């Protein structure tokens, strides 16, 4: 056992120059979802009772079906929000880890010296797509972000890649 109580077979982890967790944005939280479903349910129920009193009883069931469909659509949307991307930069590697909504993981490890950031920019809206390009291959990243967020992310990542290109010694000295 070493004096630092670490396993002698494992190397110490490199410090991260940059680390980001990118998740899909959902503007409606769980409390908002419950409130929305209660409002939709109450409106549908009141409308259904009105149609029931007028003798159009099948409409009552269809209004209930509408509430169930709205609920199902939101649940599918929230399930898709489980996806995320992790981007980390150290002095010797750029690691991209993408996890889809089902939990399936895809991971890429790139050398930050050979990576550049490529952008598809719309003149009116800003950055539409971001790619990491290395050895002629393009890896799309940050698809969950909006144009302004992509610009900020690209700037921060480019700064981190520049620091990683300067090498591990310079990165350690500048900290």
Question: Any key phrases for this structure?
Answer:
25% strand; 175 residues; alpha+beta; 42% helix; three-stranded antiparallel beta sheet; PH-domain like; 4 helices; 2 domains; single chain
Detailed description of the structure:
The protein has about 180 residues and is an alpha+beta fold. It has 2 domains: about 100 residues, PH-domain like (Roll), CATH 2.30.29; about 50 residues. Helices cover about 40% and strands about 25% of the residues. It contains 4 helices and 7 strands; from the N terminus they run βααββββββαα. The strands form 2 sheets. Strands 1-2-3-4 form a 4-stranded antiparallel sheet, with helices on one face. Strands 5-6-7 form a 3-stranded antiparallel sheet, with helices on one face. A hairpin with a 4-residue loop joins strand 2 and strand 3. Helix 1 packs antiparallel against helix 2. The protein is elongated, with a radius of gyration of 25 Å.
- The secondary-structure class comes to alpha+beta
The biggest sheet amounts to: 4 strands, antiparallel
What's the number of extended β-strand segments? 7
Helix content: 40-55%
Euclidean distance between termini CA atoms: 29 Å
What name is given to the CATH topology of the largest domain? PH-domain like
Q: Tell me, what's the shape? A: elongated
CATH class of the largest domain: Mainly Beta
Number of discrete helical segments = 4
Rg for CA atoms? 25 Å
What is the overall pLDDT average?
86
- In order across it, which strands form the biggest sheet? 1-2-3-4
